[in-house]
Design goal:
Elements: E1 2-6, H1 8-17, E2 24-27, H2 34-43, E3 47-50, H3 53-60, E4 68-73, H4 80-86, E5 94-98, H5 104-116, E6 121-125, H6 134-139, E7 148-152, H7 155-164, E8 168-172, E9 189-193, H8 202-207, E10 210-212, H9 225-240
Parallel strand pairs: 2-3, 5-6, 5-9, 6-7, 8-9, 8-10
Antiparallel strand pairs: 1-4, 2-4
Length: 241
């Protein structure tokens, strides 16, 4: 089976990575970097089709395609065992666990930050959570071509497996008295982000080694989950640098 990814950065990174075996590049004359992407597709041996903007919108089901789309193999989730095994030789590996993130744009923004922070992979649940979609790919600005995503049936059980592999698990919770910036986040660390409205579920909280909060100085009591994830991941980066 195949699917379409769209947007200049998403298409460019899929062509460069080749992980999903690009099949056909669709583009319209309005594409801002059409010549560049066409040359890249040709170097990669990918067929090219010129279509109208209307046809591209029909193919992608979206108006924000930026004049280009790429047909690729369906997204392949990594298994939990494969993801954890890929971190076995790293002293300072970072994983991100998402508990019920349902908004595709939040998911895409988190993936973009995860790639920038050197995160090894993101773990999501199969139920009551946003899967990988073309919108997620577009918002990730190509990061999805490089960040592994693992989807599990039972998130709490997956957290147990991650802990057994030597990771410390820190959940982000606004009500925690322990500030993020006062915790040692070196070594093998997994950060857990909760649902946009309800936060972390009780069973997920119980599997965390510690709950941490981001100190707030203003009158608004919470941050968007993608912003909070970025702050947490880059505190890990700061400490490791």
């Amino acid at each position: 089976m195949t699917e379409l990814v769209y947007g200049i950065h998403s298409v460019e990174h899929e062509l460069l990575s080749g992980r999903r075996h690009p099949k056909v590049l669709y583009h319209c004359e309005a594409c801002a970097r059409g010549g560049e992407l066409l040359a890249l597709a040709q170097r990669c041996g990918v067929a090219v089709q010129t279509v109208s903007r209307t046809e591209l919108e029909r193919l992608t089901g979206a108006s924000e395609h930026q004049g280009v789309a790429l047909r690729v193999d369906d997204f392949c989730y990594l298994s939990l065992e494969e993801l954890v095994h890929s971190c076995r030789d790293e002293r300072h590996a970072l994983l991100l666990i998402m508990d019920g993130i349902t908004d595709a744009r939040n998911f895409g923004a988190i993936l973009r930050s995860a790639d920038a922070a050197g995160c090894r992979g993101v773990i999501i649940a199969k139920d009551r959570a946003c899967p990988v979609t073309a919108t997620v790919h577009k918002v990730s600005s190509g990061a999805l071509a490089h960040v592994a995503v693992c989807r599990v049936v039972n998130l709490a059980r997956a957290m147990e497996y991650v802990k057994e592999a030597g990771f410390w698990i820190f959940g982000l919770a606004a009500e925690s008295a322990e500030p993020l910036f006062g915790q040692d986040l070196r070594g093998k660390v997994a950060l857990v982000m909760g649902n946009e409205e309800k936060g972390l579920r009780p069973q997920v909280r119980r599997e965390c080694d510690m709950l941490l909060s981001i100190p707030m100085q203003g009158r608004v009591s919470s941050l968007n989950v993608s912003v909070a994830a970025s702050i947490a991941m880059f505190e890990v980066v700061r400490q490791r640098l």
